[in-house]
Design a protein that fits this description.
The chain has about 160 residues and is an all-alpha fold. The protein has helices spanning about 15-40, 40-70, 70-75, 85-115, 120-125, 130-155. It has one domain. The structure holds protoporphyrin IX containing FE. The site of protoporphyrin IX containing FE (HEM) has 22 residues, from helix 1, helix 2, helix 4, helix 5 and helix 6. Keywords: Membrane, Transmembrane, Transmembrane helix. InterPro entries: DUF420. Pfam families: DUF420.
């Protein structure tokens, strides 16, 4: 099922199509969660962050397993006309931004969760939560966009 041809009409397998669609809409979902915080709907902001973090973690695990089983980037790159070295540099930058953003996201979520559970919303408001949150949002959105670009490089061109 995971490795059957995908539904987007490219040479990508099903799991790649599915994950790419997820990361295409991810910045919008994240933006909506931030919008809830701007509207001071902190409970909904918290729930949406928890759901997004859980779903994204599962998607990344599926992605990593799929990639390992199918031979990884080098194998997929054989079918692309784009310069291998260019894709390698692009992929490296993507991985660095994505790993840092993901770590910052996990840190921000659990540090905020601790204060939220203790009913200390003011602790969050008086911290640099907003600044780190904006950086996390920006970093994850760039990572998603670059991931979609890598999909296009590998399976469309
Ligand atoms: C347990 C999880 C979380 C709780 C309880 C929580 C709670 C809050 C609270 C109380 C605020 C208002 C802060 C202020 O006005 O200065 C806020 C704002 C914000 N949060 Fe979170 N948050 C959580 C997780 C996250 C995460 C993981 C992100 C990462 C994207 C994030 C992004 C933001 C942003 C960007 C704002 C600023 C919104 C604005 O411009 O007013 N939050 N959050």
């Amino acid at each position: 099922m995971l490795f059957e041809p995908g539904f987007l009409g490219t040479s990508a397998p099903f799991y790649m199509d599915f994950i790419t669609i997820f990361f295409t809409v991810f910045p919008l979902l994240m933006g909506f969660s931030v919008f809830l915080a701007i509207k001071r709907k902190y409970k909904h902001h918290f729930i949406s962050q928890a759901v997004l973090l859980a779903v994204t973690s599962i998607i990344i695990i599926i992605f990593e397993i799929g990639l390992r089983i199918s031979g990884g980037f080098t194998e997929y790159a054989k079918g692309s006309d784009i310069s291998y070295n260019f894709m390698l540099v692009f992929l490296t930058i993507h991985i660095v931004i994505a790993v840092i953003s993901l770590m910052a996201w996990i840190y921000l979520f659990f540090s905020s969760f601790k204060a939220y559970k203790a009913n200390n919303i003011n602790t969050i408001i008086n911290s640099n939560h907003k600044q780190i949150g904006e950086l996390v949002f920006f970093g994850l959105s760039i990572s998603s966009l670059m991931g979609v670009c890598i999909y296009l490089f590998l399976f469309l061109f």
